[in-house]
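Sample A.
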Amino acid sequence: MLNIFTLANGRLFQEEIESLEELTRFQPIWVDLEAPTLEEKRWIKQHYGLSIPEDAMDEDIEESARFYEEDNGELHIRSDFLIDDDENPRSVRVAFILNQHNTNLKSRGVLFSIHDEDVPVFRLLRMRARRAPGLIEDAKEVLLKLFDADAEYSADTLENIYDELEAVSRQVLAGDVTDTRAGEVLAAIARQEDLNGRIRRNVMDTRRAVSFMMRSKMLNAEQFEEARQILRDIESLDNHTAFLFDKINFLMDATVGFININQNKIIKIFSVASVALLPPTLIASVYGMNLKFPELELLGAGAYPYVLALMVTSALGPMWYFRKRGWLK
């Protein structure tokens, strides 16, 4: 899918392109290629003279090749953007090419973005740019606003994690955590821990991209200050992710503690039962020997009830003692 974005009266307008002829009618500041076909890449090559690298969306590209500037002035940035999906949270690699010196382009340049699937941050920026005149002035501003929206999207996701952990915390701290509930809680905590880790990696990647833009000296004074503000926002997100990791570890330890308590209760029952049954076992072992016992001969027919009563009494004695000490609670 090939979408172009033009700037008119301070607003960003989107057009879906389906032919090379349509592409030549517009002067966009942003060209977005989502899972581009070979034909769409050819249109970009013909009209803008821009060749999209074959490894543009590769995940295993070397780190040193993710941020660089070509001799012709093209800036290449490969950055990851978070998708907070309930079933499959993931990061999407996006390749940006900022071209400001091509003769086919206006002085404010064109930003090209290439990715395999739709990114929520892109939708967020499109919505804002349509509603807020003057939000974007040129292609560099588009790229900065994307990173700004990415930081805000990460912040919103962190708030959702905090809400989820609050619900988990209420279940854990309410006590009486059964093994079944403990399993559900641990699964929920693991999901939030994974998402929190993805956010931390995402903001780290965004920090590197924004820092590269600042070092490239491509930003004017106002945009440079905006980039510094994005870095400050990212710094606060780093602190918040660290706090959430601590909270996750606490809830994990508390849940595991309740599991251990439940296991100890079971072990305690077996221990008490085994100790309580030791005296009857001893009595049965003694009177089970092939010997003559005078007391049994004196009792005659009452020997059997006597032995049974003695065994029951020897079992009840320890049980009474354990109950008095509170070991059966």
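Sample B.
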Amino acid sequence: MQIITNDEQKELKSHGDYAFPVYVSEEVLHNYERGSFLWHWHPEIELTLFTEGEMSYQVNNQVYHVKAGDGLFCNSNALHTGDMINGQNCHYISITFHPRFIYGYDGSSLYRSYVKPIIKSQALGAYHFREEVFWERNILRLMKEIYELYFSKEPLYEFKIQKNLAEIWITFYENYVLKERVDLKDSSTSRDVDRLRTILTYLEENYAEKITLEDIADEIGLCKAECCRFFKRLMNKSLFDYILYYRIERSLPLLAQKNLSVTEIAEMTGFASSSYYARVFRAQFGCSPTDYRKNEG
């Protein structure tokens, strides 16, 4: 299983509908190929409640080490990905909702004053909730209630979920935005996020073709050396390693198609030869593409 996105990493899965723009699901990190979900974004806010295990969860340029009992706020349109830590599984509850569910309609005073400053801020990609902080513990409690309400389908559950989401927003705004007086318009963070998004989009659109460092550097307006340093700083891995990782990731669903040869798959995912593809695959998985296909079949 893997998250399905378009060429700009936007997740294509529906998160509720216009009538009730809320979607709650139980997730297991191990269900994703290689125990990680790919970079993606969506216009909905995502609240995640971690119930078992731990995970390395990256949002834009910030990495969070989350564990059971923690929660995470992921902002609208923020790029995010998650990976296992030391091969350990992680169970979590995902609550996604369109912010209009709490502000009503575009142009409302709720939207202008309290919602827009947050969802339009690239400086605020995410926030890590912990039980040790009183107001954060209250938000975690409200998230648990939303999960229970969503699956109970008891009378008025939609209203009660809306009430809880509004209370979460009020609590977060009062304690984070007002009391801590955070700068939601940090231009340096915004610039980094834009550059990272540009690189990831370029790789998504061109991973099957020959990619040079010069091509990527030109996309974001940096020299080649600075481009490498920038990517390493934000992603904690080299640009070259990430390209290989991403190409192998894209090859996994193709291996499930028995009508494609390993040579064809190598060509479709940007590898210069099937032998190089097999060598990189073995380095990442400890087996050949052919053996992986047999084991997964």
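B remarks: The chain is about 45% helix and 20% strand. The CA atoms of residues 48 and 94 lie 5 Å apart.
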